[in-house]
TrEMBL record:
This is P/Homo B domain-containing protein. InterPro entries: Galactose-bd-like_sf (IPR008979), P_dom (IPR002884). Residues 507-655 form the P/Homo B domain. The lineage of its organism: Bacteria, Pseudomonadati, Myxococcota, Polyangia, Nannocystales. Keywords: Hydrolase, Protease. It comes from Enhygromyxa salina. Residues 64-78 have a biased composition (Acidic residues). Residues 34-98 are annotated as: Disordered.
């Protein structure tokens, strides 16, 4: 048997439990409430301190355990006189909803067991159990324990160890042994060498079973002796009571043998319980009633024949309601498929403009009927009488299909309905009927109304006679098919004609120039210049113009490249010897030129000018695509003279 050096009494370590009990006595809802009778006081005589080493005698009537009756814990909304309880779960009408039906409705923050996802933590507390009172969130059983700060009667909270940090501070070990904090904001002595020695020393509450003890040493304490209703008390490795298996009905935490507590159902929902039809409920919310028992009265299963929870009705169970009680004249009332309301589709109300029940018609709603549909071969205008039956006074018995337009006929083309004469169509056409064109026909002999199926309008998406296109339907045409080699976007205008305003035309021949104005070094390659041709066809002829400032032009060669094809257009005039000492170039190179070869040129400024044939024929580019980059590369093959590549142009004839 372990020896206790200091009596447990009602030390500060029990105070949080007793404070929670005080909350339970004053703040629990009536169902599942612990009745404190008429002895509940409402005064604050608390003189607690946070010193966990404080001793008190079990006979001291003013110790910390009795100082937990606190005005802050009193729920002034609860009616609690003697054994008379007010059932807060009774359905009451609130603005926008019915409080107590287990369904959160307008104006409600919660309803019985449905907290809408809220918790003590979401309401700014550290822990505890959140309640629902009068469909408002009730935080009376929430606590600050768990917020990371020592508050009230807590000795620690998370990493905040309060006034003591080591086991030495509490005479339970050395200063090298660090204290920690339990989830209930009491010290955990597990790291202290004094914990586990089989002797209960203040401020220890107990000693756990070990090599020295066959079972936990609780020093005579039980769940009930420390303020719980019942349960199995044990000792944690940290020498503090483990109350996980103790329970208090009304503390909003489901423990021990409780089915529920407040809004804590141990993870269970309506779906875990069976309806009277022995199938699981599929909607609603659980409630917790007296003795912490689960109440499924707010759960529902549409189709089980019992109106429950948020259900308004069940198939065949209308709670005495009829079409008349719902504001209709007559008919048969039903229940919606989801039991959320009444099905009035078979109720009737003559004059509301909708055909219902056994009405033939209602106002302009003729239920799709016509004079012809009612057997009047001459057609006419069907209407509805005030008593919701058909009025056939304007229907005609004249024969539709006799080939003569008369009476209420729009047309009458006899039995064929087509190939009508102008007279049979009343001189009407597709265009007079608002269409762009087409062939107007008649539905005779079925009915003598116009048949506009062969009429057409611009904008119906179909290309009809006289239209080039219609909407997005271009009939396969493109800018290219319309002669615009540069492509672009072909569209359709409001008159169903092709719009080529966004198409790109490529000239033939196509000429484009660029002015690089880059330096030609005294020796070596200059900067190559490129011209991009974005669109076009196949090359049939190429001409190139070159302008450059350079002394001693006989030093230069010029090479044109397109794709895999390259041609040296000028190669060190004259005749490849490079002995032309003249200045500057302004020449057009053309295979068909009659001005002679550029290789023979060396005149006054410009030394190379006019229209000449190139060193290498440009027809080497024929039969290739003109689209892409054309690049001209200057090269100075002798040192001493430099210049500037001013401008060049390429002109492509294509097909």
């Amino acid at each position: 048997m372990a020896m206790r050096r200091h009596p447990l009494g009602t030390s500060n370590n029990l105070a949080p439990l007793l404070v929670s009990l005080g909350f339970m006595l004053t703040a629990c809802p009536d169902e599942g409430r612990v009745d404190a009778g008429s002895t509940t006081t409402d005064s604050d005589t608390s003189s607690d301190t946070d010193d966990p080493t404080a001793e008190s005698s079990s006979g001291n009537t003013t110790d910390d355990a009795t100082d937990t009756t606190d005005t802050d814990a009193t729920d002034t909304d609860a009616t609690d006189t003697g054994s008379t309880d007010t059932d807060t779960d009774t359905d009451t009408d609130t603005d926008g909803g019915t409080c107590g039906n287990g369904v959160i409705e307008d104006g409600e923050a919660c309803d019985t067991g449905d907290l809408g996802g809220a918790s003590c933590q979401s309401e700014g507390f550290g822990g505890g159990g959140l309640l629902c009172t009068d469909c408002m969130l009730d935080t009376s059983l929430c606590s600050d324990c768990g917020n990371g700060m020592v508050d009230g009667m807590e000795v620690c909270d998370g990493a905040d160890l309060g006034e003591h940090e080591t086991c030495f501070d509490l005479n339970l070990g050395t200063s090298m042994e660090t204290l920690s904090c339990n989830p209930d904001c009491t010290y955990n002595f597990e790291t202290c060498s004094g914990c586990g020695d089989a002797v209960v020393n203040d401020p220890e509450q107990c000693e756990p079973a070990s090599d020295l003890l066959d079972k936990d040493e609780l020093d005579g304490a039980t769940c009930m002796s420390i303020g719980f209703d019942d349960g199995l008390l044990s000792c944690s490795p940290g020498c503090t009571f483990n109350t996980d298996s103790c329970y208090n009905c009304g503390d909003a935490v489901q423990q021990g043998n409780e089915q529920c507590d407040g809004a804590d159902f141990g993870g269970q929902t309506c779906g875990d319980f069976l309806s009277p039809s022995m199938a699981p409920f599929d909607s609603g919310s659980l409630s917790c009633v007296d003795a912490c028992m689960i109440d499924t009265s707010n759960c529902s299963l549409c189709g089980d024949g019992v109106v429950s929870g948020a259900e308004v009705c069940e198939p065949g169970v209308l709670e005495g309601e009829t079409c008349s009680s719902q504001g209709f004249d007559a008919g048969i009332l039903g229940c919606n498929e989801d039991c959320s309301g009444y099905d009035t589709s078979a109720c009737t109300d003559c004059g509301d403009g909708m055909v219902e029940g056994n009405e033939q018609c209602d106002g302009n709603d003729l239920a799709g009927q016509t004079c012809n549909g009612l057997g009047f071969v001459g057609g006419g205008t069907l209407s509805c009488a005030n008593n919701c039956v058909f009025d056939t006074g304007m229907c005609s018995n004249e024969f539709c299909g006799d080939g003569v337009k008369n009476g209420n006929d729009q047309c009458d083309c006899g039995n064929q309905g087509a190939n009508c004469t102008a007279a049979q169509l009343g001189n009407q056409t597709c265009m007079s009927q608002g269409f762009a064109g087409g062939a107007l026909a008649c539905n005779s002999p079925n009915n003598c109304q116009f048949n506009t199926s062969a009429c057409y309008v611009c904008g119906d998406g179909a290309i009809n006679p006289g239209e080039q296109c219609d909407g997005m339907n271009l009939g396969g045409e493109t800018c290219v098919s319309q002669g615009f080699a540069g492509g672009g976007t072909l569209t359709c205008d409001n008159s169903c004609g092709l719009n080529t305003s966004q198409c790109v035309a490529i000239a033939n021949p196509y000429t484009v120039c660029t002015s690089p104005n880059t330096a030609i070094p005294a020796s070596g390659f200059g900067v190559a210049s490129s011209i991009n041709i974005p669109a076009g066809g196949t090359v049939t002829d190429v001409n190139v113009s070159i302008a450059a400032l350079h002394t001693y032009v006989g030093d230069l060669s010029w090479t044109l490249t397109k794709g895999a094809t390259s041609r040296v257009l000028i190669n060190r005039v004259t005749n490849g010897l490079g002995n032309c000492g003249g200045d500057n170039i302004n020449v057009t190179l053309d295979d068909q030129s009659v001005g002679g070869s550029v290789q023979a040129q060396c005149t006054v400024n410009p030394a190379i000018g006019g229209n000449r044939t190139p060193n290498a024929a440009l027809n080497g580019f024929n039969n290739t695509s003109m689209v892409g980059n054309w690049t001209l590369q200057p090269n100075d093959l002798a040192a001493g003279d430099a210049g500037t590549f001013q401008q060049w142009c390429v002109s492509v004839t294509w097909q």
